[in-house]
Amino acid sequence: MQKKFVTNLAILLALNLLIKPYWILGIDREVQKAVGTENFGVYFALFNFTFLINILLDFGITNFNNKNIAQNNHLLTKHFSSLFVLKLILAVLYIIVIVIAGFIVGYDERYLKLVLILGFNQFLIYLILYLRSNIAGLHFFKTDSIISVLDRTIMIVLCLFLLHGNFIKKGELDIMHYVYAQTIAYFLTAVIAFFVVLRKAKFLKFRLSLPFAMMILKKSFPYAILVLLMTFYNRIDAVMLERILPDGNHQSGIYAQGYRLLDATNMIAFLFAGLLLPIFSRMLKHKESVEQLVKLSYTLLITPAIVIAVGCFFYRHELMTLLYLDKNNLAQSTADIAQSAPVFAILMCCFTAISTTYIFGTLLTANGNMRELNLMAASGMLVNIILNFILIPKMQAFGSAISSLITQSITAFLQVLIVQYNFRFRVNFKFLLKLFLFGLGVIAINFLSKKINYSEANWYFNFLIMVTACGIWAFAIRLITAKGMFRIMKYG
Question: What mean pLDDT is predicted for residues 282-292?
Fold first, then answer.
């Protein structure tokens, strides 16, 4: 299993590292610069708003299905037809609810139109994820890897035409053009993924069995609650910024600038979880030990996570300037960077906690520890909302970033404790010491990299040296070893 995990992870990472960073740091960033921080802030807040009640859109079916198909491949043909129809019914309910919720919170007609289209996009996103859960559950990881980047690939092509194709005059790009491009890309990807699954499911017609649907909803309810709670403490920040502050649209845009790189790095952690859930599920079903795979996957993820988090903290102003300095609007972009750089620094520190969550939370999901996960997520949601209400009026976007860091750290720590309580893994003090020493070394390396021959004009050279030195340090303290990686690739 370890060999299969590493091989497919390499394929998945290679494809996603080619496509998704360019999407976020190239296309998404360029759109924000083209439409302006405030207009993009509106989109970012409403995009997150449509996430908040996605319990109605998925109801935990995707996670439940991923685990179920991984353990019982033969159920795909039996279940796919009913689950697909159920997803469509839930989508209609979801669209109705988000529009009503938009009225309640006070969105005007323009905002509601954007909410409606973004809501439809959310349906397509979750439909793709559901279809991919069938593919991953069957362990067709290479096919799943291709589909995982297909939507972004199509969007990149469409947005390049919008930004540089002379179809729209310079300065006239509207955020709605960006949203419609997403709709087209998600729709095409969903159609392709549907036909891939259809070849494996081999059902004759769509039909909904009400008893079966009620049984699935009952079984997936704990997953649905978990998704709802985790979505709130991960996505409510921008919504609260936009609603609480007089200049909420602008502050939401500032938060979006700081969040963009975290979103890019989160994709890598999300890929780990997508591969690990069916593998953990199958291993646990066959009563195989998961301890070595947990250590392997956590080491592979937390090592770069520490480098990324610390490096982005030390080089926060340089990275924000590289991404957002607009020579055509120098004064405004410089002012925005001054605000977004500290927000970015705090948000990137969340990545170590988020990486921990993706490994240990996935293991708990595969093991069926939904009660514990839901209690953890409920605690995280309450902490995040309370902190946001306290910190946003005083510290604006920076306060929301601090709230996120505290919340992510608490929930990650709780998940580690829950895993230890349930699995009784041997406490590897040697590994923990290496992680601690690695973290201290990364901080020291970053500090020195900004002291030795540092130049604001050529800072990226120092940054590259820092990253290289951190990699060498990981091998030097044997946190990662070439011999160990070779053994993993030969395993099984």
Answer: 86
Task: Judge if pTM exceeds 0.85.
Answer: no
84-114 burial, b if ≥16 CB within 10 A, otherwise e?
A: bebbeebbeebbeebbebbeeeebeeebeeb
**314-340 CB burial, b ≥16 within 10 A, e <16:** bbbbbbbbebbebeeeeeebeebbebb
Cα 262 off chain centre by: 8
**CB neighbours (10 Å) of residue 491?**
15
Both tokens of residue 188? 């095409």
Helix axes 248-285, 61-71, angle to 10 degrees: 20
Look at the chain and report how many structural domains it folds into. 1
* Cα distance between residue 437 and residue 480, in whole Å: 13
Whether 86 is in a domain gets the answer yes
Closest CA to 317 of 464, 445, 447, 456: 456
Cα 159 from Cα 169, distance rounded (Å): 14
User: Between residues 209 and 71, which one has the greater pLDDT?
Assistant: 209
Residue 406's nearest CA partner among 392, 387, 378 is: 387
Q: Which of 31, 28, 387 minimizes the C-alpha distance to 237?
A: 387
Q: Do the domain assignments include residue 194?
A: yes
Residue 448 resides in a domain: no
CB distance 127 to 197 below 8 Å:
no
Q: Which residues of 357-380 are buried (b: 16+ CB within 10 A; e: fewer)?
A: bbbbbbbbbbbebbebbbebbbbb
pLDDT in tens, 397-438: 999 999 999 999 999 999 999 999 999 888 888 999 999 999
Q: Report residue 119 as tokens.
A: 């809501």
Q: How many CB atoms lie within 10 A of CB 292?
A: 13
Q: How many CB atoms lie within 10 A of CB 16?
A: 20
Any domain includes 305 = yes
